[in-house]
Automatic annotation (TrEMBL):
InterPro entries: AB_hydrolase_fold, DUF676_lipase-like. It comes from Cellulomonas cellasea. It comes from the Bacteria. This is DUF676 domain-containing protein. Residues 1-56 are annotated as: Disordered.
Amino acid sequence: MTEEGTDPATDPAPVTEEGTDPATDPAPAMDEGTYFTDPAPATDEGTDFAAPAPSADCDSVSGADLGSAAAAPGRSNGYKTLILLHGFKVNGSVNCNSYWGDGKVEPYLNKTRGWGGKVRKLTYYSSGGSGCTRIPGAGGTGHAIEDLGSAFAWYIYNTYSRHGVPVDVIAHSMGGLVTRTAITGTQKQWRTASGRTFPPYLYIEDVATLSTPHEGARASVWKGCSTSRFQVCQMIPGSSFMRSWIAPYGNPQSRMGTDWSAVGSGADWVVNTGSALNTKASRHPGHKYLFLSGSGLDHGKMSSITEDGRGFNYPIKYCHYNASCNKANWDGWPQIARGAGPLWVAANAVYYSSW
């Protein structure tokens, strides 16, 4: 999503946002050198808690076109409405102000980075929600991720897409899976196992995911799997949710086209590097960024670091779709010794429309 020769890791966009909560609990001890490749366990088919997959002949939503589609907007660099979508919260309630950098991220994006009031913090949870806009159809931690994706898709459609207005999304952790199911479900015109539908189309130009478990979360998270925390079960590697909604559709597209950037960290104890970068994708996202383990960017910091005292001092590797780098193995990727922080990278990624 940058112009030729412009790299989100270094170049600024023009200036003109409990219990065992993975984002806050201390990380377990980790072996240096193993954080890249934590193996996924064999999934026991008999204990797979994930929702049934939509089959190849799954319900297509007949009559989903609710009228003439608004003309697809053209792709362009610029400050479009920017959606911030949070990750899993163990109690099903989120304070969006504290979640996004203790209230620092929104003003950073609006004022320092130039979005000028176009940043919107959303929640897909039906309780709490301080500092958030709650989307209609929101649920709890026992609701399937794809059901939340349906609610998110309809919100984007009714608020923006049907009026011809494109949006960009920065999603942290599970928020990236919610976004993926929103776009995939709309693209395929699926119906979820609970009967939820998807809108006829979406206009989402850019998505940047921060520490999203595209291939599942680490083993330290799985102990939270239960019927009341069904979303945790779905984020176990190899779950039917992963096999049906995520793995086959590595680069889902809205009607105007969607440019994806996956950002991960070697210091993240919740989502391992391969999962955050979606290295096993059936079709790779366009851009990948890896903060090295020495960055100190754990799972929670990936949604909160803007420009702190370290400035441009985060070691980072990167790979783009039009480069010769191996998108499934970061060993040989170009490296920047002093790169920008994750919110800087994500902001640049969604500002620019294409390479």
